[in-house]
Amino acid sequence: MPQIRLNDCQFHYTDQGEGPPLLLLHGLGSSEQDWEYQIPALTAHYRVLCLDMRGHGGTDKSGKGYSIALFAKDCLAFIEAMGLQKPHIVGLSMGGMIAFQLATDAPDVPASLTIINSAPEVIPRRPAEYWMAGKRLFFAHILPMPTIAKGLARLLFPKPEQQQHRDTFIERWCANDRKSYLASLRAIVGWGVSNQLDRISCPVLVVSADRDYTPVELKREYVSRMGDARLEVIEDSRHATPVDQPEAFNEVLLGFLAQVDSNRAIPTTEPAEAGLSTH
């Protein structure tokens, strides 16, 4: 298990494949295992790196001082330490929030962003939103981890034929450090960079499941406020799109990345001859 020390924390990461660098950022309560259905497809074209956020997976779990800004700072330190030049960054749920934060803090770093079932803020603004945020925090703090895992598994994978996905999710979720999970959840609620989207200068792909927690229209709205951004909707999918619709998701992601790489390969300067006098 490769390890690297960044910002006074010991991180677990994976590094596979060859080609342009691509950094995958997992969701809340997960790890690099989020991407098991993407790694084979991506490593055929890219150097694929996965970083377990602090408090998650094989990374240290202090459960103290967590914030989305700190997670993004850790990612930037990782990118620098690994010598990654203009990596593509792909983030699922909380990982998408970290990607948004990173791209607004350091707009010159990413070659592209792919945001999956996420948003540029989790700030309650209406009474119903305050109620939902408070309820989520309350039950997360009082319910045992196995109870939370079973409830989430049913939401993410409700079909009878998805039993294996439910079982795998519950097993992995119950391995979470409770203190670190709660600290990460608190880091999400109230976070936002929605007023800084104009700082993002790279191409952006937003992927939304048609049955995500938040409606497609919410993603459509914030996509409309970014420059080079587009929305792709994956049908018959819920919040864990890379798991429940891996083939459709991989096709959309690889198509986007190939287009970005192709555009980057086009020379942006005119040939020297163009500057010669014709007299």
Which CATH architecture?
Answer: 3-Layer(aba) Sandwich
CATH top level class name: Alpha Beta
Can you count the beta strands?
A: 8
Calculate the mean pLDDT score and round it: 92
Distance between the termini: 65 Å
- Following the backbone from N to C, one meets helices and strands in this order, namely EEEHEHEHEHHHHEHEHH
Helices, by number, come to 10
Determine the fraction of residues in helical runs and give it as a percent range.
40-55%
Calculate Rg over CA atoms.
Answer: 19 Å
- Describe the main β-sheet briefly: 8 strands, mixed
Pfam family, one: Abhydrolase_6
Organism: Halopseudomonas oceani
Protein name: 3-oxoadipate enol-lactonase
Domain AB hydrolase-1: 22-251
SSE blueprint:
Layout: E1 3-6, E2 9-16, E3 21-25, H1 39-42, E4 47-51, H2 68-81, E5 88-92, H3 94-105, E6 112-116, H4 127-142, H5 145-156, H6 163-173, H7 178-188, E7 204-209, H8 216-223, E8 229-234, H9 241-244, H10 246-265
Parallel strand pairs: 3-4, 3-5, 5-6, 6-7, 7-8
Antiparallel strand pairs: 1-2, 2-4
Helix pairs in contact: 2-3, 5-6
What does this structure look like?
An 8-stranded mixed sheet has the order 1-2-4-3-5-6-7-8, sandwiched between helices. It has 10 helices and 8 strands. Helix 3 links the parallel strand 5 (88-92) and strand 6 (112-116). It has helices at residues 39-42, 68-81, 94-105, 127-142, 145-156, 163-173, 178-188, 216-223, 241-244, 246-265, and strands at 3-6, 9-16, 21-25, 47-51, 88-92, 112-116, 204-209, 229-234. The protein has one domain (3-263): Alpha/Beta hydrolase fold, catalytic domain (Rossmann fold), CATH 3.40.50. The chain is of the alpha/beta class and 279 residues long. The chain is globular and about 55 Å long. 40% of the residues lie in helices and 16% in strands. Residues 22-251 form the AB hydrolase-1 domain. This is 3-oxoadipate enol-lactonase. InterPro entries: AB_hydrolase_1, AB_hydrolase_fold, AB_hydrolase_sf. Pfam families: Abhydrolase_6.
